[in-house]
Amino acid sequence: MQRKRHGWLRSPREASPHRRGIAAIILGALLLGGCTTFSHDGGMSTVAAVAGDALHSDVAALRTPEEAAAARARTRELLRRSLTAGAAVQVALLNNRGLQAAYNELGIAEAAMVEQSLPPSPTLSLRRISGSAEIEIESQLVADILALATLPARSEIAAERFRAAQLRAAQETLRVAAETRRAYYRAIAANQRVALMSEAASAADSAAKLAARLGESGSMNKLDQAREQAFSAETVTQLAQARQQADAERERLIRAMGLWGDELSFKIPNALPSLPARPRNLPTVEMQAVARRLDLQIARIELDALAKSYGLTQATRFVNLFEVGPAGKTTIDKPTGQRIRDLGFEAQLQVPLFDFGGVRVREAEERYMQSVNRLMEMAVNARSQAREAYRAYRSAYDIAAHYRNEVMPLRQIISDETTLRYNAMMIDVFALLTEARQRTAAAINSIEAQQSFWLATVDLDGAILAGGPGATGETPSLTSVAPEGADAH
Predict the structure, then answer these.
(1) CB proximity list for 468: less than 8 A, separation 6 or greater
(2) Per-residue pLDDT of the chain (489 residues; tens, 9 = 90+)
(3) N- to C-terminal Cα distance for the chain?
(4) Cα gap 430→408, rounded to integer Å
(5) CA–CA gap between residue 374 and residue 476 (Å, rounded)
(6) What's the predicted TM-score (pTM) here?
């Protein structure tokens, strides 16, 4: 009954050769699209490999309640002990919500890849026209033939861009890890400064009280009394500033690790890690940076995708839109009531009357060469940044080692000799206090040197491995300069 009422809904036997041809095209497209699926891990394998090699840590995209619960349990276990730098990084990789957002971006990129790999959906259009003389029902099935023809190239481009998205997620992982390590070392150094300033403030307060008693007995003039009291007041102010700085550094570490609530009571060591016995020797630091930096790998992938897009532009320079499909028309003869069915096909072609493709090709060539030059600039900058980071690392190590091997041992000798002379009543208490102040200042400088070394270590790793924002400056995006419509049909 339905076929009799709508003559254009025919059985497969009654289908015209045109309809069978278009059906074959659509069926082939559907079979081709059926091979495209999402990866089992959402593209996290590349991120996990980079994190395991560079950080010796695990990463996880928390997409289910079970995964989130497992991450919380792992975090609690790590926070029970005094945090090491590696443990702080692991906590950040499990809890930092900004990093999880980057992993969500990776999932979005995978969805875009799958979408670009699918054949275009055919369009079914129905039109009903009624009037006093006849009722016309027209059906049209349209398939974008050009999109089907360029599907392999578009799929390849989409896969390249997904690979770049994986490396961006890995780069963000390294950035979060570096930020956490920096915050970790700064927090420990800040606590060390607070401890030293507390000792200095206590000594200064004792000196001020002693000066006041000596002034009452007439053994010290007002000028010397005022100097001791002023020094004590200044030391108290410096202690307050050191405590505020320690609180701020701890909060930075908390933000980097993504902690809140009862997780904030974690403990960190009282002192920075000792310097390594010898610094790294990296004679090929430039080569390592060029070969391993993720921002350069991303740029190379984007350039390859841009080159493929340029080839696609060449293929479609003369045809911007080509759609073909069967067209059917049913006419009802009013006097007899008989349905008359006419079958055929309809094609639409946009004719480039003014632009024969030369403008698009020229623009694509210029954009491609622009991206090539930007990639070369990034490589030159990467070499320079790696050299600069390594020099800073070696300099920081030499300074910190100098304090460890020369300055602090000498200050200890001076302190011991001063104490002996004070016990032998060869010097007064103020000479002893003065030496204590100098020893405290040297200790603070030594802590600053150690902190600078560990921060330089983080920066060196970033210059060799990560690049990009937060490590070596902004990474230019090459896909942002892709030709308009280059990856479209």
Answers:
(1) 171, 175, 294, 295, 474, 475
(2) 444 444 333 444 444 555 555 555 555 544 554 455 787 788 899 899 999 999 999 999 998 999 999 999 999 999 999 999 999 999 999 999 999 999 999 999 898 888 877 777 766 665 555 554 444 444 555 556 666 666 777 788 888 888 999 999 999 999 999 999 999 999 999 999 999 999 999 989 988 998 899 888 888 889 988 999 999 999 999 999 999 999 999 999 999 999 999 999 999 999 999 999 999 998 889 999 998 999 999 999 888 888 887 776 665 554 444 455 555 566 666 666 666 655 565 555 555 555 556 777 788 888 888 888 999 999 999 999 999 999 999 999 999 999 999 999 999 999 999 999 988 888 888 888 889 889 999 999 999 999 999 999 999 999 999 875 445 444 444 443 333 344 433
(3) 41
(4) 22
(5) 7
(6) 0.78
**DSSP summary character for residue 481:** G
Query: For the chain, which domains are there?
Result: 274-317+359-489 (1.20.1600.10)
d(CA 450, CA 457) in angstroms, rounded, equals 11
Which long-range contacts link 18-24 to residues 24+ away (Cβ below 8 Å)? 18/326, 18/343, 18/344, 18/345, 19/141, 19/326, 19/343, 22/141, 22/143, 22/324, 22/325, 22/326, 22/345
H/E element, 142: strand 135-144
225 vs 231: CA distance, rounded Å: 10
C-alpha 364 chain-centroid distance? 29
**Strand, helix or coil for residue 200:** helix
Element holding 285 (H helix, E strand): helix 285-292
Alpha-carbon gap, residue 220 to 486, rounded angstroms: 86
Question: Residue 173: in which H helix or E strand, if any?
Answer: helix 151-217
Structure tokens, 224: 């010397």
Distances from the Cα of 481 to the Cα of 159, 290, 381, 409, angstroms = 18, 23, 20, 58
Place of tokens 């730098």: 85
- Which residue in 27, 25, 103 sits closest to 68, CA to CA? 103
Size of the chain in residues: 489
Distance CA 143, CA 139 (A): 13
